[in-house]
From TrEMBL:
This is Uncharacterized protein. It comes from Karstenula rhodostoma CBS 690.94. It comes from the Eukaryota. InterPro entries: AN11006-like.
Length: 221
């Protein structure tokens, strides 16, 4: 008994099979639209091992994140298994057509590290396609609470990755329930520049490498 008999796959089946990439681009985009786009913004919650047990059930895990839309992320992983071309195409569609809200209930270096982990998780293709990003830091704090500062090397990595988000259209940073930074691309901005490169005040929020802003000191957007 040969392999085709064992699996039930005949030579005619193989001749009639159609690869995913052989489908018209319009049809592939329709498939991506149905499988990869969330109904609302995709919530990515950053956790460490200590906080893992306190998470609500039913969230899809993308360590070190938990995602509110397991269907879209599961579909993304499944499509990525087909081949590299499908992986790149589906990642581009996923990050370009969803709004992402990254929640890192930390301040200082742990907050910046959470941002770095998310951007690294996106990969080169994802960062190049990302359009809408909201980063939420520590939910509670006082004017004396040290909000935004971090290790110089981690800060440099954060800004380097952020500058690779060349198609980013909306960037909001929220901490203690207040928007401390917001930027939106307009038609007059040069297309070859990333939004973070155009919004130089972003780095001022994090301050010099050894500066720790308190709430009263944070420059407002």
């Amino acid at each position: 008994m040969d392999g085709s008999q064992r699996t039930g796959v005949t030579s005619e089946d193989k001749r009639n099979s159609v690869s995913f990439m052989s489908l018209p681009a319009e049809l592939r985009n329709q498939i991506y639209e149905l499988t990869l786009v969330g109904k609302t913004s995709i919530q990515m919650t950053y956790v460490n091992d200590k906080g893992r047990s306190g998470l609500p059930p039913g969230l899809d895990e993308i360590f070190p994140f938990h995602c509110s839309d397991g269907t879209a992320t599961t579909a993304l992983r499944s499509l990525a298994l087909l081949n590299k071309q499908v992986m790149n195409e589906s990642q581009s569609f996923f990050y370009a057509n969803n709004a992402f809200s990254v929640k890192v209930d930390q301040s200082g270096t742990p907050f910046v590290q959470g941002c770095v982990d998310f951007l690294e998780h996106c990969g080169t293709q994802g960062r190049a396609s990302l359009k809408k990003l909201t980063i939420e830091g520590k939910r509670r704090g006082t004017a004396e609470h040290k909000l935004l500062h971090g290790d110089p090397e981690i800060l440099d990595t954060f800004f380097r990755l952020l500058q690779q988000c060349k198609t980013l259209e909306v960037l909001d940073i929220i901490t203690c329930g207040h928007v401390v930074y917001c930027a939106e691309r307009d038609e007059e901005m040069p297309a070859e520049k990333s939004l973070p490169e155009l919004c130089l005040g972003l780095r001022d929020i994090f301050g010099p490498s050894k500066k720790a802003w308190t709430w009263d000191e944070v420059p407002r957007c």
